[in-house]
Amino acid sequence: MSGLGELKVSLTKNGFQKIADLIIAHPRNEILQNIRGVYEGVNLDEAQVVNILSGDQKTRELPDVWDDIRPFGENQVRALTFIAILYSHNALIKTFAQSKTGEMRGVLRRNSFSNEKTYTNIAYAMQSFGICTYKPGAPYVDYSLATVFSNMHIGPLAKKVIYRKLQQTGWREPAPHDDFHRTFYEQCFHYRFHDALALTPEQFESWLEGLNVEVSVPPAMEVPDTAVAVSAKLVAALASKPFVILCGASGTGKTTLIRQLASALSPSAVDRRANHAFIPVEAGWTDGRHLLGYKNPFGTDGEYYAWTQVIEVLLKANYDDYSSIPFFIILDEMNLSYVEMYFSRFLSIMETSTSDTPEPIIDCETLQLMLRSGMLDAEQANMAQAAIKKGGLYLSRNVFIVGTVNIDETTHSFSPKVLDRAFVIEITCGAPSLHGASFMIPDEDKLELPASDVAGLLISADISAAPEDAEFNEFLDAVFERSGSFRFGPRVTKEIKRYMAVTAKIAAFAGSPADFALPSEVRDRVLMQKILPKFNGNRSQLGKVLEELLSMEDMKTLAKTVHKLESMRNGLGPLGAVSFFS
């Protein structure tokens, strides 16, 4: 009975990949004369060779395609020989079709073959053709066929090989106007020949017709020049340190503020979420799997990687062509669980992200597992492979993490370790008559610039620390001396100096808010965002500190800081203990 089952050849006899060597060395009419004992290590079965090369079963004559391929070069000969081997056995066609994990790539697994020797022979042959790296004893082998389709120009010759394979199944080219029999391509798609090469039907047909087929690349994207209105405070904080916590009462617009910024800087007018992941944090998170995924050993085909929105954003952010686009990870109600537990990997890695030797947050081994899991689409796979070449996924300069927090009986407080690494912006709400029913950025905080300029501010690596300001240094020293056990270290000082430089750069734009760079305004924001958030304790810990800070002459012009210090001092009376977030 005709059909795909007619395609079969011995796959347990080792060395069939050496057929390529014979094609390189001899014209087709001399190949069968050299398959036994002429060359060291070459001892092939004639029927096997004839079958693989689609020769005539009676005359043993091999088709002229094997002479046609020789002038192309050795790599092309090996690629076409691989195609011939693949389509010589129905089991191989089915196995490769099932093994694809993405565009032009797949994972061949030992347990997919009924005979272990067949797996070993195929894997070794693929390695000899440059398609994979085979490790003896490994339960699987990752392979990529991209080089077969790019710039080899062998598609039309492959079509001749596949045409003869189809004829072996009993298929014949239908006559004109015959609507009852499949055409060449219809029969190929029926047998999933395109899946065996991990191609789409369109790619398969294009390649066989002589066109180069490339792996799909991510689309070109850039931040537009459209004018936007965003929060100057938020932009300044993120440009100084790419980890910001927005705190305030429920309904004050914290989530709206950061989503508005992310949407304003989106490179895609179609999908405004193309540059951010919105993660609602849930109570009970105890590790990083909800953000960075995890390995699951119980998949259908063994271990696989369960991935997340965060990984999707990191893949984009690490892609070289997207380095000028800001990407945001938004952790909504991030203190519903202990931040130190589920966010610890980020807290550790972000300290090395700007060094000369940054550590990846996702390593190459994990990226390889993602590719094997078949969870990535063609564009994501391209990004993952690019990341592997760079040593993994990093918290690159264009990645910004923003958490929103409410403080009530359902949430957890922040440790100094978290607050020390973040800028904290308190969102307050004015009278209803000032803002109506919708969230609006106040005029004193509104930064109006082209979106591309805002993106440049956020990502810019050339913002050096502000020039030494003796008056500001004296003020900072005075705050330090009066902070008691809440004194800040060099990390905070460095980030404050960068913040001052960022503020000056923002103020240079015509669209910046009035008075944004006034010394008193800058000092007020520095204290509120970097120093006071760690204040937390009882009367004996905080009472004297608050009084001494309030007694400073320089505090009189810092309205928000004074209001916060007085609020905390007043809270110590009835409560006995208080924090910045109370």
Q: What would you note in describing this structure?
A:
With 582 residues, this protein is α/β, with parallel strands linked by helices. The protein has three domains: 4-208; 219-358 and 393-461, Rossmann fold, CATH 3.40.50; 462-577, no CATH class. The protein has a five-stranded parallel sheet with strand order 6-9-10-5-11, with helices on both faces. A three-stranded antiparallel sheet has the order 1-2-3. Strands 4-12 form a two-stranded antiparallel ribbon. The longest helix is centred in the C-terminal third of the chain and has 18 residues, at 490-507. It is elongated, with a radius of gyration of 32 Å. It starts with 18 loop residues before the first helix and ends with a strand. Residues 240-429 form the AAA+ ATPase domain. It comes from Chromobacterium sphagni.
Structure keywords:
Rossmann fold, single chain, elongated, 582 residues, alpha/beta, five-stranded parallel β-sheet
The value of Rg in angstroms is 32 Å
Termini separation comes to 81 Å
Helix content estimate: 40-55%
Looking at the structure, the CATH topology of the largest domain is Rossmann fold
Explain briefly what this protein structure is.
The protein is an alpha/beta fold.
Secondary-structure map:
Blueprint: H1 19-25, H2 28-31, H3 46-52, H4 65-68, H5 74-86, H6 90-99, E1 100-102, E2 105-109, H7 116-128, E3 140-144, H8 146-149, H9 155-168, H10 184-190, H11 193-196, H12 201-208, E4 227-231, H13 232-240, E5 243-247, H14 254-264, E6 276-280, H15 289-292, E7 294-299, E8 302-306, H16 309-318, E9 327-332, H17 339-342, H18 344-349, H19 364-373, H20 378-389, E10 399-405, H21 416-419, E11 423-426, H22 432-435, E12 446-450, H23 451-459, H24 470-482, H25 490-507, H26 519-531, E13 536-538, H27 539-550, H28 559-575, E14 577-579
Parallel strand pairs: 5-10, 5-11, 6-9, 9-10
Antiparallel strand pairs: 1-2, 2-3, 4-12, 7-8, 13-14
Helix pairs in contact: 1-5, 13-23, 13-25, 16-20, 19-20, 25-26, 26-28, 27-28
